[in-house]
Amino acid sequence: MTRRSARARPDRRARLRAGPALRASGRLVARASRRLRRVAGQAVSASVTTTDPAVRPLPPRRPAGPPSTRLRFGTSPGLPVLAIAALMVLIVAMLGVEQVTGMSLLPDRLSAGLRPPPKKFPVLPASHPTSLAIEKIDLRAPVHDVGIAPDGTIAVPDAARAQEAGWYDQGPTPGQYGPAVIVGHVDTTSGPAVFHKIRELRSGDEIEVTRTDQRVAVFEVNSVEKFDKDRLPVDEVYGDFSRPSLRLITCGGQWVGGETGYADNVVVFASLVKARGG
């Protein structure tokens, strides 16, 4: 799968001065952030590799559009600037309408990172996850710990446990400050695996993670993204320690075969909105 992170920001540390419990949480966050950063330095990409020799690799992706189209835009620098400016004005206007009406007007892919996550959230003490439930895609699966693979990437469940998810045990637990990372296979040579449908999630869908302390951390999906494994945005995926969050990571895109398997990673970005039980 994947890994990375950034140091805790000064404004977050300021919020942690409220009391001893939160100060302790801040120290845990800082250590988790450093661990994620070390892993990030070891490799730029990671994945759940699914190799099926019976499937022929697809040809490499080519840039969209004929060369003449790209050349015309390249020789007229004023046109793309004006087009981007107009698009940004339109997006801002549509976001304003969404805030007033509550209606979703922008595609999730276009608006990724633009809609603010829910403002109110709890913060939970450390506790390992034991199971994952997503009603929207009828997913219920056990969660076990995974560490770092020999190649420096986040380890993934072995093929015999393809219907289970793996929580990266060098990062935050679900509900602590920072991104808790849970990885899983998209499929195997015999059929769909645990994260086969997570690409179908949309903004606002809920993800429930049950922990060993019997508390259930409830996350709300912010966006679902697909990244080339060689161009994974490390800080975006692993670097936000401003609030408790969750990343679900699996494979997607074209099948290229070999050790890579699928060309992309599918990443679900979600934020903690409530907790119950315990």
Provide a quick synopsis of the model.
This is Class F sortase. Residues 56-66 have a biased composition (Pro residues). The chain is of the alpha+beta class and 278 residues long.
Could you characterize what this model shows?
The protein is globular, with a radius of gyration of 20 Å. The chain has six helices and ten strands. The protein has two domains: 10-58 and 122-276, Sortase, Chain: A (Beta Barrel); 67-111, no CATH class. It is an alpha+beta fold and 278 residues long. The protein has helices spanning 10-15, 20-42, 67-74, 78-101, 108-111, 234-238; strands at 129-134, 139-146, 165-168, 178-183, 187-188, 191-192, 206-211, 216-228, 244-257, 261-276. An eight-stranded mixed beta barrel has the order 1-2-3-4-9-10-8-7. The two termini are 30 Å apart. The longest helix has 24 residues, at 78-101. Helices cover 25% and strands 28% of the residues. Strand 1 and strand 2 form a beta hairpin.
